[in-house]
Design a protein that fits this description.
UDP-N-acetylmuramoyl-L-alanine:D-glutamate ligase; 9 helices; alpha/beta; nine-stranded mixed β-sheet; four-stranded mixed β-sheet
Length: 282
């Protein structure tokens, strides 16, 4: 079982010919609104990969529909609370090359209740995973509870915040970063047992208790790279939690994230397991 203390956002995605320069007003070519947030993306990826995941988070009254979408995707939403404040949201620009820029508003994601986290983790067992990232409050609080219960902790260290990482780094079993974040970590992650580095088109590197694994990416034409790393980690962690060999989990996650970037959106673009299997068999 994976317990994901994760963000839930309303993603507002604008298709633009290029990213606006300072002072530039730019017409967008298209606009969509949907479910996003690193936490929500990862929970949906875990569920679609066949994993069992309980999401711990919060939305405002304007975001109840997001909780419903999570549930429809197979995520246990019993510990997603509705607060009297705005839901977190992200303004995302996607250019013609499929690259993106993102501005976040945290909203309800930073107003989580300690009592809610305690109640959610009361049902966890030794060996279960707690998944964290930097888009919610109370990550350190949750990690301390998880340690007391002998859970394993996975940490997507994004958005990259050195102070947040310093508080969590000695409590985690697996840390996931992209290539730029890995360079910024320097030697901070040396004591972490498992290190997952996504390097874009250059592939993936994974270290587990001294063993090193690499995985190439599959060549596809990207449409929108938003959520690709979240899809990768969700699929990978689901595989590891189900006892899959690291190399097999890496390959399956690479296929899932490759398919995800051929579609517009974040959570809505995450492929079903059957699609991933078909892609790999081809």
């Amino acid at each position: 079982m994976i317990f994901n203390l994760g963000s839930i956002n309303i993603d507002m995605v604008y298709q633009v010919p290029h990213f606006p320069a300072p002072g530039e007003t730019l017409h967008s070519k298209d606009f969509t609104k949907g479910l996003g947030g690193k936490g929500a993306n990862m929970s949906i990826a875990i569920a679609k990969a066949g994993g069992a995941v309980k999401h711990i988070g919060a939305v405002g009254k304007d975001g109840v529909w997001l909780r419903e979408l999570l549930g429809e995707a197979g995520v246990d939403t019993g510990f997603v609370e509705v607060l009297d404040m705005p839901t977190g949201h992200a303004v995302i620009n996607v250019d013609d090359a499929g690259e993106n820029t993102i501005v976040l508003y945290s909203g309800a994601n930073m107003a989580l209740q300690k009592s809610r986290i305690k109640a959610a983790l009361a049902g966890a067992s030794a060996g279960d995973w707690l998944l964290l990232q930097n888009e919610t409050s109370l990550g350190v609080f949750a990690a301390k509870i998880a340690r007391e219960k002998h859970m394993k902790i996975a940490y997507a260290a994004a958005p990259f915040e050195a102070s947040a990482i310093a508080e969590l780094i000695d409590k985690v079993d697996l840390i996931a970063v992209n290539e730029v974040e890995a360079a910024a970590l320097s030697t901070m992650a040396d004591g972490v047992e498992k290190l997952l580095i996504t390097k874009g088109a250059k592939g993936i590197r994974y270290r587990d208790s001294g063993a090193e694994y690499t995985q190439d990416v599959f060549k596809v034409k990207p449409v929108d790279t938003t959520g690709a790393g979240d899809t990768y980690l969700g699929y990978f962690l689901a595989g590891i939690d189900m006892g899959m060999a690291p190399q097999t989990a890496l390959r399956r996650a690479a296929a899932a994230s490759s398919l995800q970037i051929t579609r517009l959106g974040a959570a809505a673009a995450i492929p079903e397991l059957a699609e991933v299997k078909a892609f790999l068999s081809d």
